[in-house]
Amino acid sequence: MEKYNFDEDEQYLLAQNLVGATNFGELEVAEQYVFTVRALQFEQGDYQITSFISKSLGTLHFHLFQDIYRFAGKIRDIQLVKGQTRFCQMQFILIKDFQKFKKQTV
After folding, report:
1. Which of 13, 3, 28, 2 is nearest to 89 (CA)?
2. Of 23, 2, 3, 24, nearest in space to 82 by CA
3. What would the pLDDT profile of 44-95 be if each residue is shown by its tens digit?
4. 35 and 81 in contact (C-beta within 8 Å)?
């Protein structure tokens, strides 16, 4: 797949899914359910972010999406858009100074 996969995002996500979804509607429902369960674990303190470094954020991504996608916790090498949401551009994922990000979002 090329780095810019516009109009192919749904197919990419379907190809990477671990739940056996065969269409994007099924995948969205499964993702919402599993993400909600994993996020609840985070809110209840069963999972904690230890720092704002790429390893910790990758571990968080894995925790949230491990039941849904093969790429959970891995550094993306493609641009990804889902519906109206454009995810962090791949060239910015490995920015070393996450402390600036933390200060801006707290």
Report:
1. 3
2. 24
3. 988 887 776 777 778 888 999 999 999 998 887 777 777 777 776 766 666 5
4. no
